Amino acid sequence: MMKTVDKGTILQRFVANCQKLKIEEIIWQKAIKTFHKLNVDGVLSNEADDWLCCAVYSELQQTKMKDMRQEVVNTKTDENEPWDKKARCQSWNISLTKLLRSFGININKFLKRMEHWNWLAQNGEVFQQEVNDLERRLGITLLLLQHYKRIFQKLYVLPATADSRAHYQMIYEFGWLLFLVVRNELPPFATTNLINGCQVLVCALELVYVNALEVYKSDVINTAFQGVPPSWCNKDFDIDLLHKYSAMDAICGLIPELPAKGARIMKNAFFHKAVMGLFMDQRLLGNDRVMRELIKDGILEVNLASLNRSYAVHVSDISEIDERVLLKHTPSSSADKEPALREEKQQNNISEANRKLISELTSDTQRDNLTKLLTDELPQTLATYISGALSKSDVKLLQQSLLEMCDKFESAALLKTNTSDSRFNLVRGLYYQLLDKIIAAELRRRPTIKLAQLLIQLQRTFNVALIACCLQLVLHIFEAQDTQLKFPWLLKCFNIDPYEFQKIIELVVRHECGLLTRDLIKHLHDIEAQCLTSLIWQNNSQLWRIYASTGLPRCQDVQSSSGQENVRAAPGAINICLRKFYHLANQRLAYLCKCLSLLASYTKIWHILEHSIIVHGYELLRERHLDQLLMCAIYLCVRKGQLRISFSDIIQQYRRQPHAQSAIYRAVHLADGQPNTDIITFYNRVYVQRMAEYACDLHCEQSSVGNECASTQRPLQELTSKMRLKSNGNNTNVFVSPEAMPRICMANGCRAKIITETATPKNLKRAHSNEELGKQISTSKRPNILRRRTTFQ
């Protein structure tokens, strides 16, 4: 039998895991009861965590079977209730991979345990068959994965440069993910039959390969492969020839046992239709007529993110394994000696414990992130010149801050002690390293500065924020294992204001000096954008207290810099924050206008957006997202100009943005105390009432200039050239480049003046806006995009 202390700890850990996974209490209570019933003789005590995982899996499977039977019985009575609303409350909508990762058990061990558990619990044949099918599908997938890796090495070569290797890695992940998504769209024979699975795999590899050939002078293509077009290496090669090109025979030749005829039949009869379905659902972007342009011009990253979202929805089922994690190691050929030697040299500088920590990560990108940090030998103490400039009490205060945040993190994250300790050891080293670089740069700029005043007096705004930023980087590395700790969980854990947190990000990016990988820097930019677009506009943000009486400033008012940014909260710190905010708004609005062919109306839309922020910021921006105001401003301008663009069209184009989230247009804050609603309801009930009069009276001299610009031969190229960001390496913050701002009307004599709050009727009726701007959007008929695939997104 389990000892009393061990029993309490194991059950407490089990309950914590179930709560993280949002499993209903009645289910995990039944699992505990079943475990105790089968463990009367104490046989299961030695591996209690594994058996409890089997118990909760059994309960989830039985709950799923019961729900599905009940759904069939109640089909007629529940046909008016949307499926996604019912599914949202079902606990079995979690992937088996997520369950196993939470309990720390691998799939092979789990399948062996389940075979014994079914015998102990005397589960029915249907349940046992479910486990057998799971094991069979996994075996087939592993065989297909071996073929995929072997063929991939023949088609591509691993380049030496970092940028090309990143492109190579994305193609590697995209090909496997496309195969998984398409296979799930096909009838069951494609998943239960090895031959058919190979045919689908070859079709996916061929489609990705031909699209990769469209990238001009791509150095990831293996030119020795016989499937390369004869004149592909020539400068005058016509890419349009690839529209009808097929490498099917050459790729099938890499699997001698697979006839090319069967693969072509699979492609024409099933694969082609499945891919067209992905284009129609906008899960793939490109030329759907010839199934090309999936990779070139930066579309690969968008398609990879879109397929990942689609696949995540599919595997949100207790019967499904997330087979993306099987793609653990990047393939490498014997010819790629230089990268291999470099990786071997890095591994020699890493201890055995850290090497084991790296091996637990399933993503190559995250392994690279962790390897980079561990290779640089992060310090575990303060730099000598910093500790020498501080008193013993000050040094103790800094160390105490680390310990307190470590304890708070351990209790809030509900991780095992050794796991949380290993995470925070990385945080400590990263904090000391970044603090050293930031302080050294500050001393070079201001030699007379007092470190005690800088570090101790700014304890909350600088020191704690820097520790939290380091923790966020470490959490990102282990994001696949600690899915419940995604940003902004950290801000809630340590009660950090998003406005204060976003200020530290620029310092870290500027002074990291090669310490962080590109992926970690990109992650910092992503969370900075998250802070700027929504988190700093929450109800309790200090920005609302600062601008309570004056209102938010215009874009023009914050463009002049008040001095260089530093670690102190300078008077211009708020202007810097708002400057980044307006730049981000301008950047996203410009791309949406480009996609919707509204460049000629860009200036008017910008005036509408700026007015909604300046005059009605507290009513429209508080507890909402910048992207919501962008879409509403575009639609208001479209309604004014009576253009044939619907709100659904705007949402469709928004979904194609890399930063798009379905919650932005499906869960919009309506009012305090009321449930969230969709963006069309928000537009009708809140937005148009405050903005209609201004939009009707809006006139700007620059609009005519915008029309002339739009009528030029290459307006899109001119816009993108103006929006190109400066880059001086890793030391430049992406949001501060002034030339990235496209043309915004800032003329003092512009007739598009900001209307004061008193000039706008507080009780502006909807009838007024309907009279001026046409009919109101119908709320009875929603765009299909608002109803499609709402579950788990």
UniProtKB/TrEMBL annotation:
Pfam families: DUF3452, RB_A, RB_B
Residue ranges constituting the Retinoblastoma-associated protein N-terminal domain according to the UniProt record: 63-211
Signal peptide positions on this chain: none
GO terms under biological process: cell differentiation; negative regulation of G1/S transition of mitotic cell cycle; regulation of transcription by RNA polymerase II
Annotated compartments: Nucleus
Basic and acidic residues composition bias: residue spans: 335-346
GO cellular component term of the entry, any: transcription regulator complex
Entry GO MF terms: RNA polymerase II transcription regulatory region sequence-specific DNA binding
Chief location of this protein within or outside the cell: nucleus
Domain Retinoblastoma-associated protein A-box stretches: 348-546
Location of the region described as Disordered in the Swiss-Prot/TrEMBL record: 332-354
Keyword annotations: Cell cycle, Nucleus, Repressor, Transcription, Transcription regulation
Family membership: Belongs to the retinoblastoma protein (RB) family.
Name recorded for this polypeptide: Retinoblastoma family protein
